[in-house]
Amino acid sequence: MSIYDYILETGEGRIFKLDEWKGKVILIVNTATGCGFTPQYKDLESMYEEFHEKGLEILDIPCNQFANQAPESDEEIHQFCTLKYNTQFPQMKKSDVNGPNQLPLYAYLKSQQDFKGFGKGVKAIAMNVMLKKIDKDYKKNPDIKWNFTKFLVDRQGHVVARFEPTEKMDLIKEEIQKLL
């Protein structure tokens, strides 16, 4: 299997085949509208505007698996993102990224890039403390830990990096630029 073998559904019910993006750099992110990391939409949209013409695609997959932070309908989520953050990149149907109902795409992404930690800093420490209360062994599995986890795919379809939500957006931007 490769990244291009996966098919998703948009919030409007349109079938979306990832092979439509062969030759592009892709950033895949699970999102939520009511999360402390939701303002990352601003940075994502900025990167999209700056690099889309050079071959960057961003794939937004809303998810409500983390503290019920995306309870809205697909239409309401789309309205929130376009009105508050002026997002222009494609948004898929709200989906699970972990567990028995996870999108097959996410099983693949996690098999390619394991969880490596939250890094350093105040947000990283806060995430570690919070997750340790939920699952003391959270570091030992590849599951998505929270909203705004990002996977970077190169032009050949290889999943080359995983960024936790605590990662600085500037670093993600640098890695994207290297692939473009």
TrEMBL record:
Gene3D superfamilies, per database record: Glutaredoxin
Keywords: Oxidoreductase, Peroxidase
BP GO annotations: cellular response to oxidative stress
Keyword Secreted tagged: no
Species the sequence originates in: Faecalicoccus pleomorphus
Pfam families, sorted: GSHPx
Single GO MF annotation: peroxidase activity
Active-site residues, as the UniProt record annotates them: C35
Protein name: Glutathione peroxidase
Chain coiled-coil ranges: none
Transmembrane segments: none
Membership in a protein family: Belongs to the glutathione peroxidase family.
Record InterPro entries: Glutathione_peroxidase, GPX_AS, Thioredoxin-like_sf
Highest taxon listed in the record's lineage: Bacteria
